[in-house]
Amino acid sequence: MQEIFHFDSPPENYTADAAILCCFDQRIRLAVHKFLQRQGILRPDMIVVAGGARTLASPRNDFERDFILEQVRMSIRLHQTKRMFLMSHSDCATYGGLAAFDGDRGREADHHQQELQRAAELVKANFPDLTVACFFVNFDGVHAVNPEPSE
Ligand SMILES: [Zn+2]
User: Fold this and answer.
1) For a Cys staple, 81 with which of 6, 16, 57, 68, CB 3.0–4.6 Å?
2) Are strands 141-145 and 131-138 parallel, antiparallel or unpaired?
3) Of all helices (H) and strands (E), which one includes residue 120?
């Protein structure tokens, strides 16, 4: 093979600081990256798919949900992952964007909070030892969502 790009990557095995499930939307990528660094998550196992936490909260089919759960299982098995971050974001095209909420950011945020909580319940049911945290990303930053639904 011919090297077309030289870059030195750390070859050591690692323990993942967290598994991160987030959307592939390019607009939030840098915010997520900087947020993870700020949180001390320097070795994340990134599970980057359209919709992020939606794939667990409102999967389009069983295959989608099971595939993501399998990725989490692999992260735990291969990289001893003990934490998971579930993320969704504003104007996500898989939800029909902000337009699906008639441009109402409050309604959108409420809906995503419920989605994240449902995703968290599924993760906890499948991986009781995993610590789960939920985050909603908008164009101002990252917002913590309590993974437990309030009464
Ligand atoms: Zn998205």
Assistant:
1) 16
2) antiparallel
3) helix 105-126
* Secondary-structure percent of the chain, ordered helix, strand, coil, rounded to 5: 40, 20, 40
145 CA distance to ligand 1 centroid (A)? 17
For residue 51, report the distance from its CA to the centre of ligand 1, in Å.
5
pLDDT at 149 over 90: no
Q: Per the confidence metrics, is the pTM higher than 0.85?
A: yes
Q: At what angle do helices 105-126 and 62-79 cross, to 10 degrees?
A: 60
1 Cα: distance to centroid of ligand 1 (angstroms): 36
CA of 3 to the centre of ligand 1 (A): 34
CA of 133 relative to ligand 1 center, distance in Å: 18
For the stretch 100-124, pLDDT in tens is 999 999 999 999 999 999 999 999 9
13: CA distance to ligand 1 center in Å? Answer: 31
